[in-house]
Amino acid sequence: MTNLTSETFDQNARAALRDTQLRGALDNLVKTFGERRKEVIKTVDDWEALRNRARQIKDETLAHLDNYLEQFTGNAEKAGATIHWARDGKEVCRIVLDLIDAIDATNVVKSKSMATEEIHLNHALEAEGINPIETDLGEWIIQLANETPSHIVVPAIHKTKGQIAALFVEKTGIEKTDDVDVLTNTARKVLRSRFAEAEVGISGVNFGVAETGTILILENEGNIRLTTSLPKVHIALMGIEKVIPKFADLDVFLKLLPRSGTGQRLTTYQSLITGTKLERDDEGPDEVHIILMDNGRSRMLAHPVTRQSLACIRCGACLNACPVYQQIGGHAYGAVYPGPIGAVITPQLTGLAKTKQLPYASSLCGACREVCPVKIDIPALLLHLRAEIVDGEADGISAETRVKKKFGERAVFLMYSFLWRRSKLYNFGAKLSRFFQKGVVKDGKARSGFASLVPPLGAWTKWRDAPQVAPRTFKEIWKEDLSKRND
Amino acid sequence: MKVALFATCLVDQLCPQVGVSTVEVLRRLGCEIVFDERQTCCGQPAFNTGYRKEAKKFAKRFIEIFEETDAEAIVSPSGSCTAMVKHFHDLFPKEEKWRERAEKIAAKTHEFTSFLVNVLKVENLESSFAGRVTWHDACHGLRELNLRDEPRKLLKNLDGVQFVEMPNADACCGFGGTFSVKYPEISVAILDKKIEAIEKTGADVVVSCDASCLMQIGGRLSRLGSKARPMHIAEVLACQNREQ
Amino acid sequence: MTNTASAKGEILASIRQNLAASRRFDTVYNEHHIPADRVAGSERHDEAIGLLSRFKSNLDAVAGKCQVVHNDREAAVAIQNIVDDLKPLTIAVSDSDIINDLIDRINTDATVLKNASKGELFDCDVGVTTAQWAMAETGTLVLESGRERSRLTSLLPPVHICVLDAKNIRGTMGEILQIIQNDLSRTVTFVTGPSRTSDIELTLAIGVHGPRELYVIVISDETNA
After folding, report:
1. In sequence order, what are the residues at sequence separation of 6 or more whose Cβ sits closer than 8 angstroms to the Cβ of residue A222?
2. Burial, A2: exposed, middle or buried (Cβ in 10 Å; 0-12, 13-18, 19+)?
3. Hey, is B236 helix, strand or coil?
4. Is residue A3 situated within a structural domain?
5. String of DSSP letters for B45-111
């Protein structure tokens, strides 16, 4: 079990940086997905317009989320689905267990759902003696390895073919191989036998259409179709932010999500499920249950900056574009959702107290914002959360998320603020630095020992030469030379 | 045109020749430069680290100082500081008057290369620079201010220059302000990818519009003993090949 | 269920409360984040190339195997050829009249199951269905549960043969969504090629849980499409 938490993010990151095999996998991810995305975007004649339209739809939805959820519920129930509402993960787990109990089921199959990871559903089921099997290949791999996903879309990206092969040899008894087709076939065979006996299928939901009560789930492998067609009971977990107003809106998101997520024009299968089957003899489950989950989402509506977090369609493009994620991978974040989106929703879902490193683990480069299909301004969100962490200055989030900041850093910033807003003190400060710097920095390197007294200097100079305060500041040059000339 | 120079604290203290070059280039193009010596910092470090109260104080001071000038434009040789000025309004969500004042100042503030190309409409400075140069797209300049073509046009028009595009020129250098010292290992890991790209170009000079990126990149290049060295675009355009 | 009712009440209340709290920031925020009003982008395509050609080339691009024939007789021949090639032991067919008619015309030693149960389908080698519609822009088949019992026949056997009338091909996803919404089946499935995964080192593997081969036989009575 990858037991890393967000609280040890800095240690996690350092460990990840030393993991050469992980970095190789990440290089491959970045290169492959980066190129595929670039190419596939060209197949749309106005990508920007598509993003704008998607964001508009999301903004409209979120501004009237209660209405759209009620409309969705009404229409889904009319078609025979049972809608459940859950305030948090515990309630979801309770509902799922009750539904499994109600038919005395033991064979539960699951398709990939980040929402179910978020609430640790599998653990809750296992604690009650139910052993759900993950059927998405990547999710099954990490289930076998007793790990957590390291990416929103390709959960086992941190594992090499060799590691996966070894895992399969150990857990399924196949012969040693490094043939991807053989490995994939093994998964097919093993999981197929579980599908044949499956009594309950648990899935996620990509989009819930208010206008018709339809849920849409997309995939490449076919396991979602199996999970939602074969068992008697289908349980779909849907975050409340997944609702969209109109059936026609699906077109916009189906153009954006596959392209952003995996560089495909369209994934192999989309299942559009509206309620239950019409006749008893028809194919499909007897019962369709949709659980609408809050788990901290409604709170994010309280401020326009945080509200956009709910626009996320879980494509993972921001992870692939992020220079930080590219170096450390997903596990280092110590959270279910890694990368840029993870850095902003994890603190909001679980509170800032234990996740306060995450909003700072970014250079604010904005590459994530550039690739986000729904134009979430993640840098603005990060800055909002940083302000929250410092002194709850950013409005909208409750006082309980306020976290006491390190005394030292606050003192430094108060000093900087006091001195540098007074030009005489600022100028004098420059002169002082010039005087003292030779004792601290020589030839660009920090004089060891002394530098450790000034942590930022030590951190800088361990790998980089440090700049010096110039013999004359620009202000001095201006005063003494430049102001006198004017050509 | 009368231009009020916003030198930035980094330029003022660590690389004043950038400021000197900026003034030289603008004067060459017929601008009259005014420099209010009261200026210090735009407050970006405070804003980026979450100290909005302090950032607000810096913003107010900046606005008050620069409101006094009759210059038509405020020009800065820093993409990130210019972006900060353009974000001042974020600091006054409940103060309409200050917000309006911030927006007025933001509207007349320009990054140096953007000012040359988009306001003065100059793409060819009719100067020369011998050397193989490559451009690093500083993140704020690129993504907040949309600077992509302007610096490239200016550089390519230099007589004698060999311009080489580096792979992933728009990838972050890993500085990110306090990020560079809060998470130095990650910062340097990101930086080393940039260094690799620079070395691939065989360039003598890596150019950018942000002194902070150049500090990050330059600091690593010299530590690694690379032949490439950093220069701010103002210096290149002013042909100031001064050694630091 | 009283629990869900109170949860519903609380969640809706929380949503309304938080939206209300946001209102005082919304105006200022929206001033700087003006939503755009451009018409959403569509898939690029060459207008000169017709629906059928586009459908075929897009399907071929995702490892689908598309053949165009001119009539029922040729469709039966096409199925015959595939069956001769694959030598399946069991073939399952959907309840479509067209399919049942075609399958009666072919010669095979395979057992043909016309009303296969779930369990039987697990052991079938080939599943044959039609598709109600198709999208040219992506090479996608559209299966409506209300019009044909094809949900499992198109999914469980490792080979899926699909017969499609060219008249049912539309250009875009948008058009298809409009059409199917008119009389929305309880399950609509969009199928674009055989199943696949890239979960192992991002290496593409065709054929995971869904069919590993998809044959689409398009019946088009136009000589030039």
Report:
1. A268, A269, C155, C195, C208, C209, C210, C211
2. middle
3. helix
4. no
5. HHHHHT-HHHHHHHHHHHHHHHHT---SEEEES-HHHHHHHHTGGGG-TT-HHHHHHHHHHHHTEEE
Collect all residues of chain B within an 8 Å Cβ-Cβ radius of residue C29: 93
Using one digit for the tens of pLDDT, what is the confidence trace for A132-180? 999 999 999 999 999 999 999 999 999 999 999 999 999 999 999 989 9
Inter-chain CB proximity A184 and C118 less than 8 Å: no
Given a contact cutoff of 8 angstroms between Cβ atoms, the answer to whether A271 and A228 are in contact is: yes
Contact present, C159 and C127 (Cβ < 8 Å): yes
List, edge to edge, every strand of the sheet that includes B159-164: B159-164, B128-135, B205-208, B229-232
Q: Is B79 on the interface with A (CB under 8 A)?
A: no
In a domain, B243, yes or no: no
Q: Based on the domain organization, do A248 and A111 belong to the same domain?
A: yes
Closest residue to C118, CB basis, from A56, A135, A230: A230
Token duo for residue A458: 């030590």
Residue B58: pLDDT above 60? yes
B93 CA: distance to closest CA in chain C (Å): 7
Contact yes or no for A323 and B193 at CB 8 A: yes
Amino acid (1-letter code) at residue C129? T
Per the prediction, chain A carries an average pLDDT of 92
Range of the domain at C11: 1-37
pLDDT in tens, A72-95: 999 999 999 999 999 999 999 999
**Three-state secondary-structure class, residue C113:** strand
Task: Tally the domains of chain A.
Answer: 2
For A477, B81, B145, C139, the CA distances from B11, given in Å and listed in that order, are: 12, 11, 20, 57
Q: Report the number of distinct structural domains present in chain B.
A: 2
Q: Which tokens go with B195?
A: 């260094």
Cβ–Cβ < 8 Å for C66, C60:
yes
Q: Which band of pLDDT confidence, cut at 50, 70 and 90, is reported for residue A47?
A: very high
- Name the residue with higher pLDDT: C3 or A296: A296
Q: Does B131 touch chain A (CB under 8 A)?
A: no
pLDDT (0 to 100) of residue A107: 97
Average confidence (pLDDT) over A423-447 = 80
Beta-bridge partner residues of A273: A215, C187
Are B12 and A327 a contacting pair at CB < 8 A? no
B121 by Cβ neighbours in 10 Å (0-12 / 13-18 / 19+) ranks as: exposed
Return the CATH number at B15.
3.40.50
Residue B105 corresponds to which tokens in the numbers above? Answer: 């100042």
C-alpha distances (whole Å) from B74 to each of A209, B2, B26, B43, B84 are 50, 9, 12, 17, 13
From A467's Cα to the closest Cα of chain C, the distance in A is 37
Extended strands (E) in A181-285:
200-203, 207-209, 214-219, 233-239, 243-244, 269-274
Q: Which long-range contacts (CB under 8 A, 24 or more apart) does A407-414 make?
A: A409/B49, A410/B51, A413/B45, A413/B46, A413/B49, A413/B51, A413/B54, A414/B54
Measured from the Cβ of residue A128, the count of other Cβ atoms closer than 10 Å reads: 11
Query: A434-462: b or e for each residue (b if 16 or more CB lie within 10 Å)?
Result: beeeeebbeebebeeeebeeeeebbbbbe
pLDDT at C221: 87
pLDDT at A260: 97
The token pair at B36 is 């209010």
Examine the domain organization and report whether C17 and C79 are in the same domain.
Answer: no
Return the DSSP state at B140: I
| Both structure tokens of A195 | 């599908």
Q: How many Cβ atoms from other residues are within 10 Å of residue C201's Cβ?
A: 20
Scored b (16 or more CB within 10 A) or e, A160-183 reads beebbbebbeeeeebeeeeebeeb
- Please tell me the distance from the alpha carbon of residue B29 to that of residue A471, in angstroms, as a whole number: 28
Both B142 and B194 in a single domain?
A: yes
Contact B27, A487 (CB under 8 A): yes
- Residue A196 belongs to a domain: yes
